[in-house]
Amino acid sequence: MERLERSGRWLRAGLAGGRVSRRLPWLLLAIVLLGSALKDGDLVPETPMRNKRNPLNVYFVKVAWAWTFWLLLPFITVTTYQFAKSKFLYGTTKSLLMVLRRLSALAVGTAIWYICTGLFMYIENLTGACSTSGKLSEPHRLYATKQECHQDNGIWNGFDISGHCFLLSYCALMIVEEVAVLEGLSIDQNSKLRVVINGLFVSLCFLTMIWVFMFLCTAVYFHDFSQKLLGVLIGLSAWYGTYRFWYLKPFSPGLPLPNIPLSSKKYSYSR
Predict the structure, then answer these.
(1) What is the pLDDT of residues 148-166, one digit of tens each?
(2) Which among 39, 164, 194, 228 is annotated as catalytic?
(3) Residues 24-55: tens digit of each pLDDT
(4) What per-residue string of b and e applies to 172-194 under the rule 16 or more CB within 10 Å gives b?
(5) Cα–Cα–Cα angle for 242, 165, 16, nearest 5°?
(6) Is position 164 annotated as part of the catalytic site?
(7) What is the pTM of this model?
(8) What is the DSSP string of 71-127?
């Protein structure tokens, strides 16, 4: 428990003041630029991360939104409820409504993930063609989708916007925004609730490190530069459009509570 407390305290100090949330978007763009330059110059060493079947890719990145969703769900629930009860002095009903409002950010994130990944697949199918090793005597078949092509052991050549760059950047930025709630949350050091929140917080920080590391691996090993750049720009746009624009409005999931000016009627939760 003491080690968890020390880890949480050290990570909170690193996130204090919003330094990470301000610098992370620029770091992700720099990774794409530098990683693509290394890849194009054939300067990247052979490592297990070049294989798409590496454990981090299979068990984490392939289900990145699920990991992000199921760790943020209890974290947002517990911290929002605790903050509402202690700072706003709301009753149980008001506090639960505030929790539901903040949890709707996860519904927004799910919609963004679903729409964008579907759009990426549609663009790849629309712009692609299938290359197969069929015999010359066989009639030439037209393939409508990447899936049909792969069923015949073909190679689909289309504009494949990097879903990894999009999703990993969006998930990392979303986590950094949500854990900012701890800057204004005070809990008794010997409380079991503090242990739970610290455990979730450290897990989310560890998950963010995995997302950034796998983002780096994507940048140096996979996709063309334009595909990666477009992917990360869409991820950054999704983050900016929600946390820097829409969530400042009254009819939205709202920002994590310490970021809401308590004296501002426009941005505060209605009592």
Answers:
(1) 888 878 888 889 999 999 9
(2) 164
(3) 999 999 999 999 999 988 888 888 898 989 99
(4) bbbbbbbbbbbebbebeeeeeeb
(5) 55
(6) yes
(7) 0.88
(8) HHHHHHHHHHHHHIIIII---HHHHHHHHHHHHHHHHHHHHHHHHHHHHHHHHHHHH
Cα separation, 107 vs 104, whole angstroms: 5
Which range marks the domain in which residue 182 is found? 19-41+50-122+161-257
Task: Region of 158 please: left (phi>0), alpha (psi -120 to 50) or beta.
Answer: beta
Determine contact, residues 82/188, Cβ cutoff 8 Å: no
Strand partners, 157: 129
Question: How many domains does the structure of the chain reveal?
Answer: 1
Q: For 170-223, what is each residue's pLDDT tens digit?
A: 999 999 999 988 877 777 777 788 889 999 999 999 999 999 999 999 999 999
**Residue in the block written with tokens 């010997």:** 190
Burial of 94 (0-12, 13-18, 19+ CB in 10 A): middle
Six-digit token pair at 178? 């949500």
Residue among 39, 102, 194, 223 flagged as catalytic: 223
Q: Would residue 192 count as lying in a domain?
A: yes
Note if 223 is an active site residue.
Answer: yes
Q: Is residue 263 part of a domain?
A: no
